[in-house]
Amino acid sequence: MVALQVHFLLVPSLMSILGAAQYVMQDAALLSYIDQRFLSLERRLEKCSQDLLEYVDEFRELSKAALARLARLSTDKAELKGEVENLLTRVERAQRDIDYFGSLTDSNACVEVHEDLLKQQLLEEAEEKKRLKLMLNASCDHMLAGIRSLKVVKKTGGKHGSWMKDPGKKHAKIYLLSGSVNNVVLEFANIMAFMENNQTLKARRVPLPVPWEGTGHVIYQGFLFYHRHGSLNEIVKFHLQRRSVADQMLLPGAGRIPAYQLSPQTKIDLALDEQGLWALHAEPETGGNIVLTKINPVAMAVEHSWDTPCSSRDAEAAFMACNTLHVVYNSPSGGSSRIQCVYDVLGALNAHTNPGLHFPKRQGGHSSVHYNPKEKQLFAWGDGSQIIYKLHTEKKV
Length: 397
Hints:
Pfam families: OLF. Residues 139-395 form the Olfactomedin-like domain. Strands 14, 15, 16, 17 and 18 form a 5-stranded antiparallel sheet that branches. A 4-stranded antiparallel sheet has the order 1-21-20-19, with no helix packed on it. A 4-stranded antiparallel sheet has the order 2-3-4-5. It contains 3 helices and 21 strands. A hairpin with a 4-residue loop joins strand 8 and strand 9 (244-250). The longest helix is centred in the N-terminal third of the chain and has 103 residues, at 2-104. By secondary structure, it is of the alpha+beta class.
């Protein structure tokens, strides 16, 4: 009887123990499964990370190759563009030559020049020379023979700037334009007021509606003529008393390269002489040589243009005097300025070099050099100093 009671007591306990063991085995299997899944995920993540690193390395190599290829393509594009522009220039010149020779040839002959056309051409050339002489007042018969002395009037402003008088007015006012980009002109009553220590306090400030660029501006007959900052080749005519823009014009071919290699801030240099207003600039088509243009200051229009043989290489400034261009050269490291190329537009001197015309007693470069035809002297800006050079002239041979 007792044994039967024990049997009934043990059976439920055993059943309970067996059930618990089964659950433990199931949990262990589940844990093993989860562990295997995590191991699988970790291996896949590790492989993914490795693949990503390989992709990053490949992308970097591809980027380097692409950038190198783009750089070569940019260089090739620039070279090709230069070759195409050079070819276009040569084609245009060839076309002009073809048109010119075509106008001289008879319809039935390729080589023989028609006598009437030749006479007409010579007549037109003579008329053009006569017109230029009348326009430029051939009575201007003196030439620059030397630079006698200098006077440092003041030292004010920075490295770049220009200062001048108005040769078309009777007053003795001095104008100061400091900097290669600015929009304020300082006007002084005379040279003595300018030389005073507190000269900026006594100056009349003339604001401009648009700033200038470079140092190649001039003041003539009450107007300021200057290259407008931010434009390729726009010249502004500004009335100083009315403080308003009177007119403007575009100078064909100008503004793409500096007028002078040693003064890269100046793309268009305006100049005055006994004949009025001129513009000086350089062009790639001329090999960097200086192009000279006569401008009508009233109509703001081009009257005539000359391609000169004077190079802009190692040039720092230039000025006009009696129909003649004088180009000032220096060394890139600075030294003694000298006039090495002279070009007379009427052909009396043609173009020649004269290394003997040195600027006296001074080492250093010039930011601007302007000729005053009324006083026959140069107003120059050199390393922040305002300088006057007196000139020695002789009769043209």
